[in-house]
Every structure is written in C-alpha cells, then in structure tokens.
Design brief:
alpha/beta; 20 helices; about 40% helix
C-alpha cells in the first residue's frame, strides 16, 4: 500500500521531473499548437520487473512508437480537466495530469492530446452525443479517438450503436486485471462477452465522487474509546456491517439531549445510493444468455426498510439539510456519509476526520462494495476509431498505468492527505476503498434498463416521499410496478447487443 508521505514525495518528484528533464531519445513529436500539451518533457523508465505484476502493464507496451500521432478526446466541459493540462499552474491535479500526459507521450511517441469539450447539464450532454454521431458518419481527420463522459446517460451509446465492443478489438492492450483499472466494474458490466466502458485511476471524477463514511476522529476518542479494536481493523476483519454502524451511531444517544449527532448526512440521493450498493441491493441478475429483474426480492425490501428507519426514525441521525453537513462541520457529529469530494469542506472547517467504506449488509456478505455517484466519468471508444483502436487501447493502458503515481495520488492529496500526509492508515484505507469499486450490472446500465437503480432510491429519497414517511409505505408494491416495466427495456438492451 502507498503511504501518505511516500505519495507526496513521489508526486512532487514527478512534477519536478516533468519540468526539468528532456524527452526520451527517439520520441520527439512535433509541437502541435492549440492542443492539450506540447512536446513531452518527462523522462520515463520501463517499470522494474521486481514490482507486483498486478500493478504493471505488459512490458511490450513500452516498445511501441506511434510516430507522432495525435489523440483526440471528446469530453464535456466540467470534466475536461481529466485530460487537459497545458502548463504547470501549481494546482495539484492539473500538474499531475500534465505530468501523466507528457509521460505517456514520451512512452508511446504521441504528439499531443487534444480535448474537445461540449456542454453538460444534469450529468448529460446531448451536444457530445451528437458530435459522436457526426464523427461516426464522417470519420477522417476529425474522428474521435476516445470519449470520456458522465456515466449514467452515456450508457445509451450502446443501444444507439455508437461505440465499440472492447472485447472484440484485435490486439487490444487493455488489461483490466491490473490494479490501475476498476476491474470489478468492467467484469460486472460485461454481458455475453461484450463490454463497452472503462473506469480507473485515469478518471479522477471516479475518486472525488466515491461514496464513503466519514468519522470525526476527535469525537471518536471519547465515544469509541472503549471499543476493542480500531474502526480500520473492524473494516479489514470484515465486521463493518450496517448493524455495527448503527451500534456506533447509537453511542451518541438522542441528539436532542446529547447535542452530539451519531451521524450527519445530506437528505439527497447520493448517500442512499452508497448505502444501497454497499449492502448489495439486487436489481438485475445476469444469466447465461439473458437478464432478469431482481427488484422485488425480499432483500431489497429489507434494505429499503432499514434505510427508512435510519433516515427518519433514528434520534441520533440528522438528515434535514441538503449537502450542508452542519453538525459534522461544526464538530458535533461522530459520523458523516456522502461523496468524498465533501472532504474539502471538512478540511476547511478544521475537522480531524478519517474515511471508511459504506458498511456491508451483514457478515454473510462476500465483500465490501464501493461505488461512485453516477456522474463520474466513463471511457469508451467510438466506432469511427475502429481502424485506430489497437493504438488507442495502448494509449489508454498507459494513461491508466501512469495515472496511479500522478493523477490518483493528486486526488488523494486533494481530498485527504493535506491533513494526513504522514498517516499510513489513512492512505491504506483510501486504496482499500478504491479497490472495492464494483457497481452492479443494474446500476451500471440503469438508464437503459428503465431507471432500475432509481426506484429503490426514490422509496427512501425525501424529495419524492411524503413528509410523514413510515416503513408501512408500500415498498413491495412499488417494486412490483417497476418489475412490470422492465421487460420491454431488457428486450431493447439485449436486441442492441446482438449487433455487436
């Protein structure tokens, strides 16, 4: 595991190298004005063979030289920063992206990365989709090499026939078994030998939108003082269940009397998605040659009932505000829950905190499941790039590999280690959560499977529930209604896959 201090040292060293050292001999692509970056300045070395093989790409990757090709990336304006960095600015993420890009350019003989951004609204971009459609029709010099776009709506690119089946690319260099890819996401999204989307260390939005549990370490010294093991060890021992979480939340008592909340969380869908996924809500099941609904299962009803009680009937829980975390930021809540990006607010409020995965449903669950809120970026390759697909997979593989010691570490630095740069426990847990990013088949493809992910969420989500929500509300009947609507959507999805 990476230690916090080591992360800072390596990141700083990589940024210095990018500014001071010349490019590798034999790979000096021409400068291309108006693109993401000019001639690469990073010196790179092939990874040591003694390192963990799961962290390294195939050695043959570094023998490739694409002779000054330019890589054109279609993206949206809010996430252009994932691949665009024209110069060092002192921003930790920008400078890490710059170093990463320059290193890959030097590795593979790439002239430049050119990003073409399109407007985005509500996690969607019709303009980007129209550009992909046009590029697929026109091809030529304006072809798009790969796309990075918001995850939820972009899955419709499958049913619209716009992208390549990654498993069918001959000579593909992508190895999702490596740690710098989110391999469980790729595996869970695959159906009948077909897969379309990638996430990993090269998509920083994945990290900042991770669903996590926050712990106020100062309050923990009082309220968790009698615990036989640290919360870190509880997680690693597989004992971080929702019941255990409730036990620790209850240690603060009734907040009306104690003035300390056991948990402070926003009353929006973000935390609900995280808890539901962490407890393995079962929406869609993959069979050998088809898919079936699992939404009406007893486990799903139980999870929704459990969350309703937690949000609305637990006197130690506050969920009255939307994203504000008034009690956690004021130091009067033991736990918080939500997106990792909120950690910047806790740093600003001078709160000593640590992070943990969303709890498992119970001890029988196989493992922890971490997800990122559904506007994180996913990567795919449009059909217009079919003739260049082998090269593009090599570039993506190197981008993912080189991102771990640059972009991934920068996100750690930004969201966490600014306060804990020398604490190995925090950096190890950061890695642990990230390596458990999985997503279920139903959550990945929710949009094209009839919004299947959202109905269970909306049965808890306060804005769509009455002000007097109780566990006697018709959860089961609502799920049965959804179940009836899924058949046609499943058929459309399966029919679309037949064309790949």
């Amino acid at each position: 595991m990476k230690k916090g201090s080591l992360i800072r040292i390596l990141l700083a060293a990589s940024l210095v190298l990018s500014a001071l050292l010349p490019a590798c001999a034999g790979k000096t692509p021409e400068e291309d004005t108006g693109t993401t970056t000019a001639v690469p300045q990073a010196v790179t070395e092939e990874p040591a063979e003694t390192a963990d093989p799961s962290t390294l790409p195939d050695q043959g990757l570094f023998s490739l030289d694409f002779g000054g090709e330019k890589i054109r990336i279609a993206t949206t304006e809010p996430r252009e920063y994932e691949f665009k960095a024209e110069e060092q600015t002192g921003s930790v993420v920008n400078d890490a992206v710059l170093t990463r890009n320059q290193t890959v350019m030097s590795d593979l003989g790439i002239a430049a990365f050119e990003t073409v951004p399109y407007p985005e609204s509500g996690g969607n971009s019709k303009e980007l989709k129209n550009a992909v459609i046009a590029a697929n029709k026109a091809g030529g010099d304006d072809a798009i090499d790969f796309i990075t776009a918001p995850s939820y709506y972009t899955t419709s690119y499958i049913t619209d026939g716009l992208i390549l089946n990654l498993e069918a690319i001959e000579g593909s260099r992508i190895d999702t078994g490596k740690t710098y890819w989110s391999g469980k996401y790729y595996e869970n999204g695959m159906f009948n030998g077909k897969a379309f989307f990638l996430i990993g260390d090269l998509t920083p939005t994945l990290i900042e939108k991770l669903e996590v549990v926050f712990l106020n370490d100062t309050l923990a010294e009082t309220y968790l003082a009698g615990e036989p093991k640290t919360l870190y060890q509880t997680v690693y021992d597989g004992e971080w269940t929702f019941d255990r979480f409730l036990e620790l939340v209850a240690k603060c008592g009734d907040a009306a009397s104690s003035k300390i909340y056991g948990c402070d969380l926003p009353n929006n869908s973000y935390t609900i998605d995280g808890f539901e996924a962490g407890m393995c809500i079962d929406l869609v099941r993959k069979l050998d040659d088809t898919i079936e609904s699992g939404v009406t299962g007893e486990q799903n009803v139980e999870i929704i009932e459990t969350l309703r009680k937690f949000y609305y009937e637990n006197p130690a829980v506050n969920c009255q505000q939307n994203q504000n975390y008034p009690y956690f930021k004021s130091g009067t809540a033991l736990f918080g829950a939500g997106l990792l990006q909120y950690s910047k607010d806790f740093i600003a409020a001078d709160i000593d905190y640590s992070i943990y995965p969303m709890p498992m449903r119970n001890a029988d669950q196989a493992d922890y499941v971490a997800i990122s809120q559904d506007t994180h970026s996913i990567i795919c390759i449009p059909k217009c790039a079919a003739d260049r697909a082998e090269m593009i997979t090599a570039v993506l593989e190197d981008l993912a590999y080189r991102s771990h010691d640059t972009v991934y570490m920068a996100m750690y630095e930004l969201t966490y280690s600014a306060r804990y740069s020398d604490n190995a426990a925090e950096s190890e847990m950061f890695d642990f959560i990230n390596r458990h990013v999985a997503f279920s088949f139903g959550s990945i493809y929710s949009y094209i499977l009839g919004e299947v992910k959202n109905t269970p969420r909306y049965l808890v989500y306060p804005s769509t529930a009455s002000s007097s929500v109780t566990v006697s509300s018709p959860i089961a009947s609502s799920l049965k209604t959804l179940d009836k609507l899924l058949t046609a959507k499943f058929k459309t999805f399966l029919t679309a896959l037949e064309d790949y």
